Amino acid sequence: MALTKATPRTGTSPRRFQWRVVDIVVASVLAVAVGVIFFAWSAGYSGVQLLTGAFPPLLGLYTGGWLIAGVLGGLIIRKPGAAIYCEVLAAAVSALLGTQFGLLVLLSGFIQGLGAELVFLLFLYRKWNVGVALLAGLGAGISLAVSENILYNALWSVEYQLLYVLFASVSGVLIAGLLSWLAVRGLAKTGVLSSFAAGRTADR
Q1: How many Cβ atoms sit within 10 Å of the Cβ of residue 60?
Q2: Mean pLDDT (whole number) for 34-45
């Protein structure tokens, strides 16, 4: 007998890609909170720049702190656009607070969020394990390094630019990827993510 109505399957309905009000609210709150962290992280940049003056590519190891919003937002919201939304909004908050990098952080936020977003898209927004989190951090780190090599490091040697990409990638994996994944697991245990799949499937 033919069915007149398709039987929905868990995880296959287009509705799972639609943003709910709670998604927008939580993503926004998350991004604002991380935006304050971005501002504080930027405040420490000058000191780190002095410490790495003899070998500038080492600055890449510090960049992971600016990549957290996209990876964390993507892991929690699990909807298309979440990584970009959270990263750009966090960047906007840091700009409003007076970050030394000015409005250029909005462009950086979009590029960095896109790097994480593409990884989530690669897995069709279906896998959210630690491997995907690390790859999202890697994607964000590479995006950051390539864009900054174009915008800020154009006068560096090719070797320095490649090393900057390497160090930023490591920072993205460890700080944005691993720490974000651990943060999601920790938040899930408290129950605050009960309205999200991230709160029910933190181990997957």
Answers
A1: 24
A2: 95
Q: Which of 78, 71, 72 is nearest to 16 (CA)?
A: 78
For 88, the enclosing helix (H) or strand (E) is helix 82-96
| Residue 28 CB contacts under 8 Å (≥ 6 apart), including other chains | 89
* pTM, 2 dp: 0.88
Cα separation, 10 vs 31, in Å, equals 28
Both structure tokens of 135: 């790859």
Structural Rg of the chain based on CA atoms:
18
Cα separation, 80 vs 34, whole angstroms: 20
> Residue 203: its pLDDT value, please?
47
Triad 168, 87, 105: Cα angle to 5°? 75
Dig out the tokens for 203 from the structure. Answer: 């181990």
End-to-end CA separation in angstroms for the chain: 37
Other beta carbons within 10 angstroms of residue 166's beta carbon come to: 16
Question: What is the CA angle 44-117-179, rounded to 5?
Answer: 45
> Can you read off the two tokens belonging to residue 90?
């966090």
- Per-residue pLDDT of 132-159, as tens digits, reads 999 999 999 999 999 999 999 999 999 9
DSSP state of 126: -
**Is residue 30 a contact partner of residue 73, using CB atoms and an 8 Å limit?**
yes
Report the pLDDT value the prediction gives residue 110, as an integer from 0 to 100.
98
Q: Tell me, what DSSP letter sits at residue 39?
A: H
Q: Is the separation of the CB atoms in 78 and 17 below 8 Å? A: no
Tokens of 84: 């970009």
- Tell me which amino acid residue 102 is: G
